[in-house]
Amino acid sequence: MCCLVARYLLAIAALAFAYSLAQALRHAHRMRGGADPISAPSARLFDFIADQVLAYLLMSALSAAIPITNRMRTAVINNFTDATAAAISMAFLAFVALALSATVSGYKLSRQMYM
Predict the structure, then answer these.
(1) Residue 80's pLDDT band (cuts 50, 70, 90)
(2) Would you say 27 and 36 are in contact if contact means Cβ atoms under 8 Å apart?
(3) pLDDT at 1
(4) pLDDT band at 38 (very low <50, low <70, confident <90, very high)
(5) What's the CA gap between 111 and 115, in Å, rounded?
(6) Which pTM does this prediction carry?
(7) Is the Cβ–Cβ distance between 19 and 67 less than 8 Å?
(8) Given CB 3.0 to 4.6 Å as the disulfide criterion, which of 2, 21, 34, 103 pairs with 29?
(9) Average predicted confidence (pLDDT) for the chain
(10) What DSSP string describes the chain?
(11) What is d(CA 5, CA 65) in angstroms, rounded to the nearest whole number?
(12) What are phi and psi for residue 78, nearest 5 degrees?
């Protein structure tokens, strides 16, 4: 059970990292003067939805990993439990960053002019 939860946390963290890296590269390309590969209205909607989904997935992985890690740490504290606790902390920080990004994306989406 604990290995499945650790794998789930790692998979979601890797997915969030890949999405954030793709977003950073997309914005860097756009800032250099290149065309955005996604049209502006679609990009705002995609950013908002992807930020929301990944933030909820991160919170889901955190809520699955915390009880098992706490239970394991009451029995024994070793490198695995320390690494799992560190992964939970980093995933929570990633959740906070994605939640802020979702707030900004939601604001941009709400300011969009519809024609």
Answers:
(1) confident
(2) no
(3) 61
(4) confident
(5) 13
(6) 0.81
(7) no
(8) 34
(9) 87
(10) -HHHHHHHHHHHHHHHHHHHHHHHHHHHHHHTTPPPSS-HHHHHHHHHHHHHHHHHHHHHHHHHHHHHHHHHHHH---HHHHHHHHHHHHHHHHHHHHHHHHHHHHHHHHTPPP-
(11) 6
(12) -140, -170
- What are the tokens at 91? 């995933």
What does the pLDDT average to over 81-90? 88
Length of the chain, in residues: 115
Q: What amino acid is encoded at 53 in this protein? A: V
Contact 69/22 with Cβ under 8 angstroms?
no
Give dist(CA 36, CA 13) in Å, integer: 26
As given in the structure block, the two tokens for residue 23 are 């977003």
More confident residue, 47 or 38: 47
Residue 98: CA count within 13 A, CB half-sphere: 29
